[in-house]
């Protein structure tokens, strides 16, 4: 369960951003729509615990994780939150499979190689296990990035513009994949985007 | 997958940067290590060849030349001295013992030295085969001489006048090998030992053909013996000459009194090996220090290269590091990643440097051995070298420091937004 109350954020003390409250029950997904410049990325970074809000509260499954000391916040984020970015990024000197294992290692999970391979097979990257990220096509990279976010079984998946650079077909595929993966790991999915194409795929949506 | 493996992957994914840093570090450490080793080996060899010899008496000339010729057998002798005069030193109560050396002939470039049994005993060298000489013209050969000339017990050969090949061959008297020495890693490995009388005997004969060509001679032999060929082997001719005499004192007071007395009151020259050798090594040491400083600068430059390659790769990897933080990495895990990369470079470079200096030493010893009495290079890490490791690691640490601080303070939201 995710709950935010009167979140605000300020850049350089000038631009004041305030965000609508979010109440999300277990197993509910949410689409947050907004035009450029309304603070979509800021909101997702606050939710990820990367930014501290100027005021307001965030509570996830009863934990006010923004109050944790930085090291524990890092661990909380590693363990509970998976992130998908607009542009997929990887540690480029190691293979896709090793990226998944590294993610497990950094979040203090068991480095289950079979599970990582299985996940990559599931999203159609069975033959790219040992490729480095720059050897993948853009669609493949986006899928691998989703694998990277869900490999550690997070409770909350935050996706920042995951579809903005994709065509309609791929857009639908990626969104479907995200929803499937979130459902299969019982995670809550929040997608922040300006991409109206996603609207019909989500029951819950708010606009910034 | 863990931080250690990731740092390794990062290093091998940038082979050119990594190779450059390693090369510089290897080169700097290698040069210093090579110099330290060489210095150490030469000093050790110089000292071990002294074997407690306190003073060398010979003809007037350069004291260093006297020491080099009569202890290390790597220079020409200064001349001849009267055996009788040299022997008076023995009467001094401060003198423990003296060993006469007579040389000037050679066989295939290996010196034939007339001396007493005390000489091999002083070097504590053991016989591999046979016995020490018991009469004139019997010789005991050093291990290297035996090996390089394939000499066996019972073999005979003629000495050549002079210390290099190509001189007049004393073909009236053949030497017979009666003993072969074990390797002692001293000058003795390169010598052919016999008694002093043999040298006298071979050269006495030349009075008959006194005017033969001596152009190849390196020094003046005494050719004016009146010794009868048939006379007793072990007699001493009245005006017998030797090349040098090694002296051991009973008492340190000898150092103060005897050399000055000899140098001032006789035709002989007394030289103190310890003094000459420390003068020689001091001279060598100056050059060593200069090269050392240059090599140290190379190490510092390699530190700079490590810094630049880490810094550049960080600029490219900023997003990656932020991503790792999002995956749950702590600041310290990233610090560890960068430090590991820098330290691995300096550590591997140092080890490669230490190894390559030994490799060069092996190659060098292959050439040097043939010519001089220096072999048996030792390959363990010497104490001076132990400093190289912490210094190199410190430089690696220093080079990683700024990149590490950058990583520690990386602003994740900003980095992620600007990607």
Question: Notable features of this structure?
Answer:
heterodimer; A: 208 residues; alpha/beta; Rossmann fold; 4-stranded antiparallel beta sheet; 34% helix; globular; B: 419 residues; alpha+beta; 2 domains; 6-stranded mixed beta barrel; 12 helices; 52% helix
User: What name does CATH use for the topology of chain A?
Assistant: Rossmann fold
Number of helical stretches of at least 4 residues of chain B: 12
If you average the pLDDT of chain B, what whole number results?
83
The percentage helix of chain A is 25-40%
Number of domains of chain A: 1
Q: How many domains of chain B?
A: 2
What multimeric state do the chains show?
A: heterodimer
Explain what the structure shows:
The complex is a heterodimer of chains A (208) and B (419). By secondary structure, chain A is an alpha/beta fold. Chain A has a single domain, classed as P-loop containing nucleotide triphosphate hydrolases (Rossmann fold), CATH 3.40.50.300. Chain A is built from 6 helices and 9 strands. Chain A is globular. Chain A starts with a strand and ends with a strand. In chain A, 43% of the residues are buried. The mean pLDDT of chain A is 88. Chain B has 2 domains: 3-46 and 288-417, no CATH class; 55-271, no CATH class. Chain B is built from 12 helices and 12 strands. Chain B has helices spanning 3-13, 15-48, 63-72, 83-87, 118-122, 143-149, 196-204, 253-265, 273-326, 331-371, 388-408, 412-417, and strands at residues 55-59, 81-82, 95-107, 110-115, 127-130, 138-141, 156-161, 169-181, 191-195, 241-242, 244-249, 268-271. In chain B, helix 3 packs across helix 9, helix 9 (273-326) packs antiparallel against helix 10 (331-371) and helix 10 packs antiparallel against helix 11. Chain B is elongated and about 105 Å long. With 419 residues, chain B is α+β, with helices and mostly antiparallel strands. Residues 206-232 of chain B have low confidence and may be disordered. In chain B, the strands form 2 sheets. Chain B has a 6-stranded mixed barrel. In chain B, strands 2-10 form a two-stranded antiparallel ribbon.
């Amino acid at each position: 369960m995710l709950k935010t109350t009167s979140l605000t954020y300020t850049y350089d003390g000038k631009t004041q951003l305030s965000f609508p409250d979010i109440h999300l029950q277990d197993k509910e997904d949410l689409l947050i729509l907004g035009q450029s410049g309304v603070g979509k990325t800021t909101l997702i970074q606050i939710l990820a615990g990367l930014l501290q809000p100027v005021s307001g509260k965030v509570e996830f499954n009863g934990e006010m994780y923004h109050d944790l000391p930085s090291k524990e916040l890092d661990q909380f984020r590693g363990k509970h939150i998976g992130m998908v970015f607009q542009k997929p990024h990887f540690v480029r000197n190691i293979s896709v499979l090793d990226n998944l294992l590294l993610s497990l290692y950094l979040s203090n999970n068991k480095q289950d190689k079979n599970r990582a391979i299985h996940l990559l097979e599931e999203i159609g990257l069975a033959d790219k296990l040992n490729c480095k990220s720059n050897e993948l096509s853009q669609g493949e990279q986006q899928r691998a990035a989703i694998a990277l976010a869900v490999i550690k079984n997070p409770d909350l998946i935050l996706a920042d513009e995951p579809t903005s650079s994709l065509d309609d077909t791929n857009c639908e595929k990626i969104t479907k994949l995200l929803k499937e993966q979130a459902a299969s790991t019982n995670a809550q999915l929040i997608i922040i985007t300006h991409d109206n194409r996603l609207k019909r795929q989500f029951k819950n949506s708010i606009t910034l | 997958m863990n931080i250690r493996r990731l740092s390794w992957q990062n290093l091998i994914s940038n082979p050119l940067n990594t190779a450059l840093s390693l090369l510089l570090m290897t080169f700097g450490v290698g040069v210093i290590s090579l110099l330290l080793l060489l210095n150490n080996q030469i000093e050790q060899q110089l000292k071990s060849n002294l074997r407690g010899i306190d003073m060398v008496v010979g003809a007037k000339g350069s004291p260093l030349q006297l020491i080099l010729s009569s202890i290390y057998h790597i220079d020409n002798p200064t001349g001849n001295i009267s055996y009788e005069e040299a022997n008076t030193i023995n009467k001094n109560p401060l003198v423990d013992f003296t060993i006469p050396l007579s040389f000037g002939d050679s066989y295939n470039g290996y010196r034939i030295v007339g001396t007493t049994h005390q000489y091999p005993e002083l070097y504590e060298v053991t016989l591999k085969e046979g016995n020490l000489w018991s009469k004139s013209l019997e010789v005991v050969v050093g291990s290297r001489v035996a090996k390089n000339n394939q000499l066996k017990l019972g073999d005979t050969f003629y000495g050549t006048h002079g210390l290099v090949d190509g001189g007049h061959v004393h073909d009236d008297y053949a030497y017979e090998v009666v003993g072969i020495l074990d390797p002692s890693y001293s000058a003795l490995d390169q010598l052919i030992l016999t008694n002093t009388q043999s040298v006298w005997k071979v050269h006495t004969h030349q009075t008959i053909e006194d005017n033969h060509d001596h152009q190849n001679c390196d020094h003046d032999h005494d050719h004016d013996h009146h010794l009868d060929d048939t006379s007793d082997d072990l007699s001493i001719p009245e005006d017998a000459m030797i090349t040098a005499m090694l002296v051991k004192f009973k008492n340190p007071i000898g150092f103060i009194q005897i050399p000055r007395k000899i140098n001032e009151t006789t035709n002989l020259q007394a030289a103190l090996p310890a003094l000459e050798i420390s003068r020689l090594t001091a001279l060598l040491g100056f050059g060593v220090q200069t090269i050392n400083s240059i090599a140290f600068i190379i190490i510092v430059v390699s530190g700079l290269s490590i810094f630049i390659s880490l810094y550049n790769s960080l600029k490219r990897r900023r997003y990656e590091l932020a991503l790792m933080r999002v995956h749950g990495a702590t600041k310290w895990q990233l610090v560890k990643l960068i430090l590991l990369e820098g330290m691995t470079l300096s550590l591997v470079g140092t080890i490669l440097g230490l190894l390559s200096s030994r490799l060069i030493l092996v190659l060098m010893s292959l050439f040097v051995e043939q010519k001089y009495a220096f072999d048996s290079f030792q390959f363990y890490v010497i104490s001076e070298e132990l400093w190289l490791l912490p210094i190199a690691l410190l430089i690696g640490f220093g080079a990683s420091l700024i990149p590490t601080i950058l990583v520690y303070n990386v602003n994740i939201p900003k980095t992620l937004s600007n990607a």
